[in-house]
From TrEMBL:
Signal peptide region: none
Transmembrane feature ranges: 6-23, 44-70, 76-99, 203-223
Designated name of the protein: VTT domain-containing protein
Key words, A-Z: Membrane, Transmembrane, Transmembrane helix
Span of domain VTT: 64-185
UniProt keyword annotation of Membrane present: yes
GO CC aspect terms: membrane
The keyword Hydrolase is annotated on this UniProt entry: no
């Protein structure tokens, strides 16, 4: 059983090393990458969506800094509404994959646990989860800490997967998804309008992205207000 586990970890480590080495040597030419994605999307047809979801989820699980590119490019490939589904599915798949890999490693390797305990994010997130449970996981999704750091760090804690991890993750990722896909959609609509290639109604090309950005702002403000209330409620009353 343990031998089979080490085989899986070894394969994963090799894959991460190869991808990371290629990333450092070749970089990421966004225009060329987007052109390639557009060609794949046209050739694959309906299969382009599951391929996009898989690649985006894998890039997050491998801790590659490409999320903003994938999420702003999605509406240019699939349209605004379809891109919301694609990015949301990729985020949930990536979070589940990262959590499962992290939980597998941390439960079978004492050295990995020792490494996590030396990480400053681990103690912060561990204490927050112990104190507030799913509420802290929800608030953590609005922090500047990268999502893959949160995913793997939470895997090292005793947080439950479905209710305490996956559900608040699904809720917490919505504002950023709305923001990034809306920016990409607005940029695409502006370019199409300027070049005269926008055959669709210009109103609808701008309406849904603007609503998306406004929704993102409103949700973020609501969560910020909630977090402030939680912090205030936890301040012990002064002794008289």
């Amino acid at each position: 059983m343990r031998r089979g586990w080490w085989w899986k970890v070894a394969v994963l480590a090799v894959l991460v090393a190869v991808v990371w080495r290629w990333w450092q040597e070749n970089g990421w030419e966004k225009e060329a990458a987007f052109k390639l994605m557009r060609e794949w999307s046209d050739k694959l047809g309906i299969w382009a969506i599951p391929l996009y979801i898989s690649i985006h989820a894998l890039s997050i699980a491998l801790c590659l800094p490409s999320a903003i590119f994938f999420e702003t490019a999605a509406p240019l490939l699939f349209g605004f509404l379809s891109s919301l589904f694609c990015v949301f599915s990729a985020k949930i798949l990536a979070a589940s994959l990262s959590f499962s890999i992290g939980r597998l490693v941390f439960r079978n390797s004492s050295s990995a646990v020792e490494w996590a305990q030396r990480n400053r994010y681990f103690h912060l997130i561990s204490r927050g989860v112990e104190r507030d449970g799913w509420k802290f996981v929800l608030l953590a999704r609005f922090s500047p800490v990268p999502s893959y750091v949160i995913n793997y760090t939470l895997a090292a804690t005793e947080v439950g997967f479905l209710l305490d991890f996956l559900l608040p993750t699904a809720i917490g990722c919505v504002p950023m998804i709305l923001q990034n896909t809306s920016i990409g959609s607005l940029a695409g609509a502006a370019v199409a309008t300027a070049s005269g290639s926008n055959k669709k109604s210009q109103f609808w090309s701008y309406f849904f992205p603007v609503i998306g950005i406004l929704s993102s702002v409103l949700i973020s403000l609501r969560i910020k207000n909630y977090s402030t209330q939680v912090s205030v409620s936890e301040i012990p009353p002064q002794q008289k």
